[in-house]
Automatic annotation (TrEMBL):
This is Major facilitator superfamily domain-containing protein. It holds the Pfam family Sugar_tr. GO terms for molecular function: carboxylic acid transmembrane transporter activity. The chain crosses the membrane at residues 92-111, 118-142, 190-211, 223-245, 266-285, 313-334, 341-360, 372-395, 407-427, 439-457. It comes from Truncatella angustata.
Length: 482
């Protein structure tokens, strides 16, 4: 059995706490050779840089995901719907999702086995490469034709998707562990503000850049295309600069699988129901949320008189801004009423109540009251971001010990992206076969099912992450002695 390393003692500046048994880590090595203290200014700066880097990365990811909406409008107008069919539109949208699933699973493992920092630098690089490829789409169109361009976009978006997906487990784990060191009582709100809020804000900024490019270029769609994708290149480059100064958290330094085999059977047996619960909730939320977000541009485009691209973009911007207050309220609620009940409130208020209202009044709203439709649609999204949008990632992070946090979160988020891909694939035919109102009834039904699952998810509000790691390490020690 590998040597046992005992955690450094708490600093004298910390308030008195109930004495805990020292966490012993079998095979976990502090590669820096330094004894880190919670109160050291260097570590606090490193933790803050980790949190800031994760926030900007999530902003970049939100921007990336919203590129699909504007890209769909641009291609519909330039190429035409007879070529850019719903099947091709879905293929390009799903390429980002499929890439995300690969990135989530791959980097979830790499982040636990090797390093949070290394994984995050690699993911940022992939986002840069994939986005840079996308900016060349119309050059491929001119030289190789439309079919080559559409396949080129599929590959480019898939490459960016691997990086976007890899951000989920690496950033979520690193940010949670960084905030636990110095801001533990506020780690829940911090996690929501640097993840969901930033991703939602990135989506709104992407729409704003698209609108400003249209205004500045006189509705030149090719200029708008290059503008939105050029900005998308610089965001992850800025993240790389920030991340050079970040460091792996103390929890990860103390408990990891860098020099020991991962006990897959033990992890599955010990955390099976948590994996099932978080994965199911993630799957169902993204099954509804992602296609609804992408389809918003298609719905608005079909309703705006004359299909003026600038007017469509303006309505898209309204829709993109409305979820932001929901996220802020969700960040406040996660400590007030807990993670689970915040999720349930958002699901029942948004997808169930508002979803059924929109479904029942769809024709009336879209024919006679477009502003009212946009407000209700925005409220549906706001409640979704207040509830599961703000909490499912946080719950999935807190549900697993540090040594397996990237993998546990990665599996759950991977199922989420699979749900998003499937939802994107099935919502279009559902809408075509049963009418546009049917998708809102589906959202309401899924909201009821997800609320039931949420009730059984672990509540992490009072979870002591360090104590949870101690229990996990003792479990590993007992296993190694058997």
């Amino acid at each position: 059995m590998a040597a046992v390393q005992t955690l450094p003692p708490r600093t004298a500046q910390e308030p008195p706490q109930v004495e805990k048994p020292a966490l012993t880590v079998t095979g976990a090595v502090d590669t820096s050779g330094k004894c880190f203290e919670n109160g050291s200014s260097g570590r606090k700066t490193g933790s803050i840089m980790t949190i800031v880097g994760s926030a900007i990365a999530n902003f970049s990811d939100g921007y990336q995901q919203n590129l699909a909406s504007s890209t769909n409008i641009i291609f519909n107008h330039i190429i035409g719907t007879h070529v850019y069919t719903s099947a091709i539109q879905t293929r390009i949208s799903n390429s980002l999702l499929v890439g995300s699933v690969i990135g989530i699973v791959l980097f979830g493992y790499l982040a636990d086995k090797f390093s949070r920092k290394g994984g995050m630098l690699a993911t940022s690089g992939l986002v840069v490469v994939g986005t840079l490829m996308s900016t060349l789409a119309f050059q491929v169109y001119s030289s190789q034709g439309v079919n080559a361009m559409l396949w080129f976009m599929t590959i480019a978006r898939g490459t960016a998707g691997i990086g976007v997906g890899g951000e989920y487990p690496t950033s979520a784990a690193a940010a949670l562990e960084g905030s636990q060191e110095h801001f533990d009582s506020r780690r829940g709100p911090i996690q929501v503000l640097i993840s969901t809020l930033q991703a939602t804000s990135g989506s709104a900024v992407c729409t704003f850049v698209y609108l400003m490019a249209l205004v500045g270029s006189g509705n030149d769609l090719k200029v708008a295309f290059h503008a939105i994708y050029s900005i998308a290149i610089f965001l992850p480059l800025f993240v790389v600069v920030i991340r050079w100064r970040m460091q792996d958290g103390m929890l990860f330094t103390r408990s990891n699988f860098k020099e020991r085999a991962i006990p897959w059977t033990l992890l599955l047996r010990q955390y099976f129901w948590r994996i099932i619960g978080t994965s199911a909730a993630f799957f169902l939320y993204d099954f509804v949320n992602f296609p609804n977000s992408i389809m918003s541009s298609v719905i608005i485009n079909s309703l705006v008189p004359g299909k003026n691209v600038r007017h469509v973009a303006l309505w898209q911007l309204y829709l993109a801004l409305m979820p932001i207050p929901g996220v802020v309220i969700g960040a406040w609620l996660v400590n007030k009423i807990g993670r689970r009940w915040t999720g349930i409130v958002g699901l029942m208020g948004g997808y169930v109540i508002i979803g059924f209202i929109i479904g029942g009044c769809y024709d009336k709203l879209t024919q006679d009251a477009l502003p009212a439709f946009v407000v209700l649609y925005g409220l549906l999204q706001a409640f979704g971001h207040l509830g599961p949008g703000a909490t499912i990632g946080l719950i999935s992070c807190e549900a697993f010990p540090t040594a397996a946090r990237g993998m546990g979160y990665g599996i759950a988020a991977g199922f989420g992206k699979a749900g998003a891909a499937i939802g994107t694939q099935v919502f279009t035919p559902i809408r075509a076969a049963a009418g546009p109102a049917s998708t809102f009834y589906v959202a309401g039904g899924v909201g009821i099912l997800t609320s039931a699952i949420y009730y059984f998810l672990p509540e992490g509000n009072k979870t002591d992450l360090e104590r949870a790691d101690e229990e996990f390490e003792r479990l590993l020690e007992r296993r190694s002695n058997d």
